[in-house]
Each structure stands twice: as C-alpha cells, then as structure tokens.
Amino acid sequence: MKGNLLQLIDQFLEYLEIEKNCSKLTIRDYRHYLEVFEKWFTTNLPDKSLADLDLQIIRKYRVFLANREDTKGMTLKRVTQNYYVIALRSFLRFLIKNDYKTLEPSKIDLPKTESHSLKFLEKEQVDRIIMSIDTSKEEGLRDRAILELLFSTGLRVSELVSLNKDKINLDRKEFGIIGKGNKQRIVFVSERSALSLKRYLDKRKDIFKPLFIRYSGKIIVDNNGEKMRLTSRSVERMVKKYVRVSRIPVDATVHTFRHSFATDLLTNGADIRAVQEMLGHKNIATTQIYTHITNRQLRDVHKSFHSGNKK
Fold first, then answer.
1. pLDDT (tens digit, 9 = 90+) per residue, 162-208?
2. What is the CATH T-level fold of the domain 123-300, as seen in this structure?
3. CB atoms < 10 A from the CB of 189, how many?
4. Catalytic positions, please?
5. pTM of the predicted structure, to 2 decimals
6. Which of 22, 87, 200, 239 has its CA 20 to 30 A from that of 245?
7. Phi, psi angles (nearest 5°) of residue 186
C-alpha cells in the first residue's frame, strides 16, 4: 500500500469532488496538505506502510509540522498545522471506509488553538468607509457598489467576483449564487446597495459579461470579457485601501464585511437559522460564532437586572 500512497490520495480527492461536492479550492488545499505528508512519510519511514501508522509516527509528523516553514520563512501557525492534521484524518477515514487497514483517525487529537475575537464593523464604520470613495469616476462607482454589496449580502469574495451582469435582478433585489461546496442559495440586495449597483451599471458602456471589471492594465476583448473580470486579490487590496483612507480603528478585510453582515442581522433580531441560510453555512455551529456578541435577549437581561444599570 505504501507504493500506492499518491494513488490513494488521488482517489480520496476524487471522492471529495464527486461524493462530497467539495470546492476546487478545498481540493487544492487538501492535495497540498496530503502531498506534504506523503513526502515526509516516504522519506523518513521508507520501510513503513500506512498499515504501520500509529500515534508515535503521528507525533513525529507533528514535530515536523511545528518546525516547517512557510513561503515567508516563518514557522507554521498552530491553526495552520491543524489543517494538515485535519486533512490527514479525513484521508484515513476514507481509507478505513474503503477497507484499508490503517490508524483509526479518531485517535488523533487536535490541540486547541488560540481564541481570536471576532472582528466586525459597526454600521457607522461601514458608512465611513463607503463615504471615503470618490464616485466621480466609473471606478469609484464600482468600488462603492462592491462595498455596498458585500455589506448587504455577506458574499464571500470568490462569490462576489464570480457574478455576472445578467444574473443580477435589481427589480426583485435578489439573485442566486453557487457558493462554497457548490451550495446554492439566494442572496438579497438592500435598497442602498441596489441603488449603488444601478448607478454603476448605468455608467458602464462595455459589453463585458462580469458584474465587476478591472480598470487598470490592458483592455482585452474576448468572447465574454473574462479577462476583464476583477480578481479576488484586487478586491482585497481595494478594501484595504478604503479602510486606510477612512481611518477607522479596525484593520478590516473583505471577510470583515461578511462578519459585519451577520452581526448586523443578528443584533437586530434575525433568526440564526435564517442567517445560516443567507451566509451559506453548511453547519449551524459555524454561524453560532456570532451569537455571543449579538444575543439581544442576554443583553436585555443584563440591562434589566444588573445592578450597575440601576439609576
């Protein structure tokens, strides 16, 4: 089985794509994590097979991960090390399901990582960022439409840049999206966001298919304008630019707008299951990270009963 390790990894990745409907990004990451394990395993344990895998070998692999450096020469963060182990556990689970003899993945524990506070923007901070945009040019209208849409819908940046003009219904103020794991959902556009999108699209005179296009570099005309599509990296740089210009006290990113969308809904009384659907979360536990800062009932209890609130 040792000689077939790369083949088994390929079979596992095919399983993720076909059976589990995982995204291409997830499959790419899992391929990287497992190929790192394959190289380490075959190099350091040439006489071993996956049937010999035990917790002692796993500990040695984790020591290797703890000392592994990333592309910037920095050792891997604990959370990043866990991604490698999570991928390995999933791979072993797949092998056992297909009657291969190997280590039971449930025996491999994941160490707790540092807890990071959830970063989100207040409505006033979102407004400050948006108002810092110069909309006298078409590029500025695009940037405002992007930020308004991020806050209005909670879209992931990959979902945002994949949008096409013909899929946006500004009359109904909603559209369908295929998100992470090819999960379909409906997103809703606020009145303000719809207005910004309309102003931007009314200014566009091109025939390019993408909803958001780039304005720097050479104009490349192809059949559908794909080469003019704005990239995720460009959106990330754009958000950083306006966060810096607005001078808000939060180092906000594109994903911060997604957090802000969720906290805004929950703070104003939205049902967590509805927010789960709008975010496209597969598991409710993922959405529950927002509840500790948005639980209105707990806030009302504190306001009513804590002695420090008594006049």
1. 999 998 889 999 999 888 777 889 999 999 999 999 999 999 999 89
2. hpI Integrase; Chain A (1.10.443)
3. 21
4. 156, 180, 255, 258, 281, 290
5. 0.65
6. 200
7. -100, 135
